[in-house]
Amino acid sequence: MDRFVIAIDGPSGTGKSTVAKHLARQLRAGYLDTGAMYRIVTLAILRAGVDPADEAAVADHLPLVQFHSPTDPDRQQHDLDGDDVTAQIRGGDVTLAVTPVSANPAVREWLMERQQQLAHTGRMVVEGRDIGTVIAPDATLKVYLTADESERARRRHRQNGAVNVPAAPNDLDAVRADLNRRDTVDSGRATAPLRAADDAIHLDSSDLTADQVVEQILAFAAERGIN
Ligand code: DC
After folding, report:
1. Nearest residue by C-alpha to atom 14 in ligand 1
2. Does some domain include residue 195?
């Protein structure tokens, strides 16, 4: 199949990024990290000195935001105004401010067009919160990834240490509190809340390695003619 979308949705820390990237490599497909797009817009808002909670001011600033989103799973460099901000978008300031920015309907609408266009460029694995419900309701395969809370906190804690994220919460309890804060707001927001699509396959990754999750998804994909 030369055109497909595999949607990988779910809360923070379930291993979505690792799994989606592996999957894209195995299938020689592109990979789109929509969370990174919300993070880049958030960084642009912070750099401009705009209050992330001021919906109208954030909306007014959007036309000035210039960024590039990579789709190669092996070259995930994120640029904002020509600067490499790959590490900075994972930092504590952005992680805090991305919640109001991603709940802003103007931001979601602005990014939606770009995400829909990139998602439909061929063989694509797309990761986020609303891919199966809003960005690609026509996706060939939809996976909703979950994991129990302490496992999610452990994984994100490890990930923060591995990439040496500046100003990220660095004790396990702070990481857990931050995941809970984001998921509660993401699930409760009015526009495109975190929710599984009715036709999504639910996969609990708590007791599985990333490779095992990828294997299971590859099997579901093969059933749909994707290989
Ligand atoms: O996946 P992530 O943690 O990098 O995402 C950052 C934030 O962006 C997250 O708190 C929720 C939001 N997000 C969203 O609202 N919709 C998406 N499709 C992807 C991310």
Report:
1. 129
2. yes
Whose Cα sits closest to atom 5 in ligand 1?
35
Residue 130 token pair: 């609303």
User: What residues make up the domain containing 174?
Assistant: 4-221
Q: How many domains does the chain have?
A: 1
Ligand 1 site residues, Cβ closer than 6 angstroms? 12, 34-35, 38-39, 98-99, 102, 128-130, 182, 186
- Average of per-residue pLDDT across 10-32: 96
Residue 174: inside a domain:
yes
In a domain, 180, yes or no: yes
Relative orientation angle of helices 172-188 and 149-162, to the nearest 10 degrees? 110
Residues 6+ apart with CB under 8 A from 25: 73, 74
Distances (CA, A) of 159 to 38, 90, 162, 206: 19, 10, 5, 16
For residue 227, being part of any structural domain is answered with no
Verdict on whether the full-model pTM lies above 0.85: yes
